[in-house]
Design goal:
The complex is a heterodimer. Chain A is α/β, with parallel strands linked by helices. Chain A contains 16 helices and 9 strands. In chain A, helix 2 packs across helix 4 and helix 11 packs across helix 12. Chain B has 20 helices and 6 strands. A 6-stranded mixed beta sheet of chain B has the order 3-2-1-4-5-6. In chain B, helix 7 runs antiparallel to helix 8, helix 8 packs across helix 10 and helix 12 crosses helix 14. The two termini of chain B are 41 Å apart. Classes of the chains: A alpha/beta, B alpha/beta. Chains A and B meet through helix 3, strand 1, helix 6, helix 10 and strand 9 of A and helix 2, helix 3 and helix 12 of B.
């Protein structure tokens, strides 16, 4: 897979400049700010993982996906959740196959059998090990804050030393000159451990300024009128100023804009907004609150 | 260069380790000397919490920018501010190359060079720059940078003028290179070298000013700032400063969460050990079917995670007025750090403030307190006997064996009755209520803001409460809160089991 950053620059990282990354990200459909460009540039140059934090829907995961497109590296994604075990994320022994082998070798040399069943042939690779072995990849560890603290400890060896120790097999090291860009995302639902933070470059993404959000919407809905996008953003900003349980993020603004196009509307009238409100607000009490305040007022068409 | 910056960050209690410093040094050499790029690059290496960002930005400006404005010579222009940096308009090598290529395409070579020669007259006021060009030709970039710095400093020490001169320099070198290099590939290489010279020059310039303005001066400047260190903060100074409190609830929350996490990991280790031996036979047999009846994996029973239930009771009487801001910030912080938290305030009766806590609204909480002061006759004097009785009544169904009750009070029972009526000494009746209260919950803790040497003096009844079964800790700022948590953790039970 070829990315947007020329191969030559990847081979000679010293030649890669921040604006190559900026241009590439724009071309893959991600409008970055200076912070994102600089951090991604440093992550590539210093060979360090990036820890992206910020509210939901501000483009953390999408940054990982776009980084993969940008460099043309395969994307390996690990979705974290409570109770995620190393067996599901790093490696697991193929018990069935091992058991069959043991039964086949029932009467033969036991030592030989033991050596065989703890070899790579009997190892099931999970995302982290796959990423470690790849010569080039973007590893997206999504929502790391949802995983247990113990899981973070397993990650340290991979993030810091680029190796994973499998007790029965030894240490698996990354190939030389490996190009692995690791992006960890977190919603800050819990505090991450200091050692993990220390191994990463930190990037905090917030909701973008209005102008950038407008460009993002126009990038996703190129056929939309400028004026309509302005109206949408004014409305969304009014919503964000209310004390809602879940404020609409960029992802929701884009959904709203796309829905407007899908229903063939070129302006914002209260009835349409009322119908499409569920694309912006995801909590019933929020929807009720907005209806109580009056959609007309929030659209600025009321008295 | 970076070490000094890191030292300043540490002065502001931003925790920066050696590894981060090394990363920052590498980043410093990799990034263009553009103020905003440098700011973002160093921030991503050095700070790991977004709440440290304002401190970082402030120190960055102080160290790399404003600092230079205060050098020996007076300023001629307005101070450089974030986003308006002259340096940030720096030149990209490729842009210059591209522009030059376009110019080449538009104009035939000879007239262009004639024009360049004419322009050279204008730029000649930076005379002697040919020597720099020669050094660049010979690839002696350090030498070129030294010469350039010397030449520019002989004319100015003002950073903005310096930046302008650097820009003029590249314009000049662009023209100069038009004569010196014929081949396009070499030309790009040449422009690369010019840019490197600019970077080296700017670094040297920054270092020069660093020497002229010692770090200690900066540190003293930092301390003089009205910008306190939250962990050792004397909250008394900021009493009633709502903006300050609102801004700091997050920091208090972070500290509490960090403390809670230390305890949680300790506890989870203990739980893991306790888990061993409890085998879920039914699940193990079912699992073994996958492997033809061989019990490859033992399945353990899962322990139910107990979430802490905390009830806070905060003293807002006159004697606690000096510390009530800290108490309220603490209440909000605890509420944000844990899910199951209920809050009450008291003087001679108690009043539920859980709703205001739920919304995390400092203003609302203060409103409730002032309303409470107007409404009740306590007049700011505490009567702990009636207050605790009221508390017991109001929380009867809420306090269980899982609950931890935390009382934030100085234990000065001003109006409370004693055994000997009218006497300031003797067993206080409120201690009986404490004894009653201590029987039900998992733990009853009192956080006392007073220095322990004042405990049990005057109307303070700490000892009676401790004898009645409460644990009392001195806590008047976050530093002491941290110490208290370490002390509290030594007991078998602890309230901070899991963060939300």
């Amino acid at each position: 897979m070829d990315g947007l950053v020329p191969r030559e620059l990847l081979e000679h990282p010293a030649k890669l400049k921040p604006h190559d990354i900026e241009d590439g990200l724009v071309r893959v459909g991600y409008l970055p700010n200076q912070k994102i460009v600089t951090t991604l540039f440093l992550a590539f140059q210093l060979d360090k993982p990036i820890l992206v934090e910020g509210p939901a829907g501000c483009g953390k995961t999408y940054l990982g996906v776009c980084t993969s497109k940008l460099f043309g590296f395969p994307l390996i994604r690990l979705q974290c959740y409570e109770g995620l075990l190393p067996e599901q994320s790093i490696y697991e022994w193929n018990y069935h196959k091992q058991l069959l082998k043991i039964q086949m070798n029932h009467l033969k040399d036991n030592d030989e059998c033991e050596k065989t069943i703890f070899s790579e042939e009997y190892l099931l690779e999970r995302p982290l090990l796959t990423a470690l072995k790849s010569p080039e990849a973007v590893l997206l560890i999504d929502e790391i804050d949802k995983a247990d603290e113990q899981f973070e400890a397993f990650l340290l060896e991979l993030l810091g030393e680029r190796q994973i120790t499998i007790p029965e097999l030894g240490t698996v090291r990354a190939p030389e000159n490996q190009k692995l860009i690791t992006v960890l995302t977190s919603n800050s639902s819990r505090e991450l451990s200091e050692p993990l933070k220390r191994r990463c470059l930190h990037l905090y993404l917030d909701y973008p300024p209005k102008e950038l959000e407008k460009r993002i919407i126009l990038l996703n809905c190129p056929q939309m009128y400028d004026e309509l996008v302005d109206n949408i953003l004014d409305f969304v900003e009014n919503l964000r100023n209310l004390r809602l349980q879940k404020t609409p993020s960029i992802a929701e603004s884009i959904d709203f804009a796309r829905s407007l196009l899908a229903v063939g509307k070129n302006d914002l009238d209260p009835d349409t907004v009322n119908t499409l409100l569920s694309t912006l607000l995801k909590v019933k009490s929020d929807i009720d609150m907005v209806k109580r305040k009056g959609i007309e007022n929030l659209l600025g068409v009321g008295n | 260069m970076i070490e000094g910056f890191v030292r300043l960050l540490r002065e502001r209690n931003i925790r920066v380790g050696l590894a981060e410093t090394i990363d920052a040094c590498k980043a410093f050499s990799l990034l263009d000397i553009d103020k905003e790029i440098m700011r973002e690059g160093l921030a991503s290496c050095l700070i790991k919490e977004e709440m440290d960002r304002p401190d970082f930005d402030y120190i960055f400006d102080l160290y790399f920018c404003n600092q230079m404005q205060e050098s020996k010579k007076p300023l001629q222009q307005t101070p450089t501010r974030r986003g308006e940096s002259e340096l940030s308009k720096g030149i990209r090598q490729e842009q210059v190359t591209e522009r030059l290529r376009q110019e080449d395409a538009q104009q035939p070579p000879t007239p262009q060079r004639d024009q360049q020669r004419q322009q050279q007259g204008v730029l000649a006021r930076y005379g002697g720059i040919r020597g720099i060009g020669k050094a660049i030709d010979e690839n002696d970039l350090e030498g070129a940078a030294d010469q350039l710095l010397e030449r520019i400093l002989s004319k100015t020490q003002d950073p903005d003028t310096f930046a302008q001169m650097l820009r003029n320099f590249i314009e000049y070198m662009k023209l100069y290179s038009g004569w010196a290099v014929e081949d396009t590939a070499d030309f790009e290489d040449y422009l690369g070298r010019i840019k490197e010279v600019l970077n080296i020059t700017q670094r040297k310039y920054l270092e020069l000013f660093r020497e002229e303005y010692p770090l200690e001066d900066l540190i003293s400047k930092l301390v003089k700032l009205d910008y306190p260190n939250i962990e050792e903060l004397d909250f008394n100074k900021y009493a009633g400063d709502l903006v300050f409190l609102v801004n700091n609830v997050d920091k208090v929350e972070k500290t509490i969460k960090r403390l809670a996490q230390q305890l949680a990991s300790k506890l989870s280790r203990r739980e893991k050990l306790a888990d061993k031996g409890k085998i879920n036979i039914r699940k193990t047999i079912r699992k073994s079917l996958e492997y033809g009846g061989v019990m490859v994996k033992l399945e353990h029973k899962r322990r139910k995670v107990q979430k802490p239930e905390i009830i806070l009771l905060c003293d807002v009487s006159g004697s606690c007025e000096w510390i009530s801001d800290f108490f309220i910030t603490l209440m909000l912080g605890i509420k944000k750090a844990f899910s199951e938290v209920k809050g009450y305030i008291f003087t001679d009766y108690c009043w539920a403030v859980t709703k205001a806590l739920d919304k995390g609204m400092v203003e609302r909480l203060f409103q409730e307190i002032s309303h409470w002061w107007d409404f009740y006759r306590g007049g700011g004097n505490s009567n702990m006997e009636t207050a605790f009785e009221d508390f017991l009544k109001k929380t009867q169904s809420d306090i269980t064996k899982k609950t931890t009750v935390i009382i934030l009070s100085d234990c000065r029972d001003y109006l409370g009755r004693r055994e000997v009526y009218g006497s300031a000494r003797g067993h206080p009746r409120s201690a009986d209520k404490i004894a009653k209260l201590a029987k039900i919950p998992k733990r009853l803790m009192i956080l006392n803001p007073e220095d322990p040497k004042f405990w049990n003096t005057g109307d303070s009844v700490v000892d009676y409460y401790v004898q009645a079964g409460a644990e009392c800790y001195p806590v008047k700022n976050l530093q002491e809160l941290a110490n208290m948590v370490i002390l509290a953790a030594k007991k078998d039970l602890n309230p901070y089991i899991y963060t939300r």
